[in-house]
Amino acid sequence: MSSFFENRRVVVTGGAGFLGGFVTEGLKKRGCKDILVPKVEDYDLVEINDIVRMYDEMKPDVVIHLAAAVGGIGANRRHPGEFFYKNLMMGVQLIEQARLRGIEKFVALGTVCAYPKFTTVPFREDEVWNGYPEETNAPYGLAKKMLLVQSQSYRDEYGFNSIFLLPVNLYGPGDNFDPESSHVIPALIRKCAEARESGAGHIVCWGTGKVSREFLYAGDAAEGIMLAAEHYNSSEPVNIGAGFEITIKDLAEKIARLTGFTGEIRWDSSQPDGQPRRCLDVSRAKEYFGFEAKMSFDEGLKATIDWYVANKKR
Q1: Which residue from 16, 45, 169, 235 has the least number of CB within 10 angstroms?
Q2: What superfamily does domain 9-175+216-243+277-295 belong to in CATH?
Q3: pTM for the model
């Protein structure tokens, strides 16, 4: 573990959120004494005046930009304009103001949704521009991908040290379990747990179940982000993932088993599947800054289910 963070002031946007909690804990373990989290009640990071005020008051050396307007397929379909605008304006203005202030390093988080809908599996970073993203989350994915353009062009023109990471779908304790905006793992955990408790004979899941996804434990993602901040200084995009895929049907059956739900799983094929497959090539992260996911998928799911059961509203 390096001493990179020990004497640096680090702003973590979204630090009070799901992934942010793992990142701030990881920074503390690395000896970081000045971890600054701009809370939404105090700073609207879509607004330039709040961004300027945040930088003036917090005076960071390093910015780790995790804050995002985000959700599952349903939320993306309901809010394509909002997700595009908020994610673009947050990222672009945060990077520009960091450049103007001579911030030492900016860590920008992209998304697997930035990849084209039809991409050779596993997804290699060099493929990120070879097609349009899957339609249901394209506005979000493209807004995030503009931060890659900005990182690369700012390094070329200004020598600004901004890096761009492409994390796959995350899960873990503390995830968002709101059925209006949650991603697939917390949505399935809640459905199965509630069905088991109520004695329901079946649950209904979106799509066909045939598409595949890759999932990364949020604690592993946080470690990848911190390793990149410590050791990586280039604008080539880098995938952050676990390097495996599972069909949504197999995922639903696994979560049903782990939650104790024994009823039927029905599939509503009138609802969208989203991207056909998702699995990242994770070799670049290992080569560039030594990152490999550690948490086994079953253990991570058990920890997430246990957290939900302990923290759900009665």
Answers
A1: 16
A2: NAD(P)-binding Rossmann-like Domain (3.40.50.720)
A3: 0.94
